[in-house]
Write a structure and sequence with these properties.
heterodimer; A: mainly beta; five-stranded mixed sheet; four-stranded antiparallel sheet; B: mainly beta; seven-stranded mixed sheet
Amino acid sequence: DAKTTQPNSMESNEEEPVHLPCNHSTISGTDYIHWYRQLPSQGPEYVIHGLTSNVNNRMASLAIAEDRKSSTLILHRATLRDAAVYYCILTNSGYALNFGKGTSLLVTP
Amino acid sequence: NAGVMQNPRHLVRRRGQEARLRCSPMKGHSHVYWYRQLPEEGLKFMVYLQKENIIDESGMPKERFSAEFPKEGPSILRIQQVVRGDSAAYFCASSQSQGAVHEQYFGPGTRLTVT
């Protein structure tokens, strides 16, 4: 699976929108873009995934660039409970997920 | 519907002992995955199993590690003759089907400490 690049850390104020970027310039046509997050001392939690079109669910939105070389996870109103490490993962197999270092999101009141 | 369950949550073993980690997937899920997370690192894939079959064990060390998912009962990750470098958090995940469109549901992990 192709690699992704994410900022090490980001900070947001509570109740503000958060845009978490991910670069994946070597993405292949069959790679899906998945986002997971991991709260402290917990297992990862699925957030959202997409292939080409933007996606929305109850947790977040995923905006995918037209050339698919980058994507952005959007949390519409950050809460303190959203403080976690967010992982952007490409996969075409669906099972051997490659969790890199992710982006550590700090949310301040 | 109960989520993925792992036990024990914490396990302490002395060097040379055996560690057995158990994972019960979500109800209705027949695909199980094991990952290992070393301190300050992301999760690394170890093995993918379906009932009674190992599908891909490319991420698992060839020696001392084994995994099974029997017809009845939980999936087991077994580490023989543990060494200090095995200290890590081990996560199990499950999914209803396999493929890039399917998300994985993770358990809370087992934190193994080797003394």
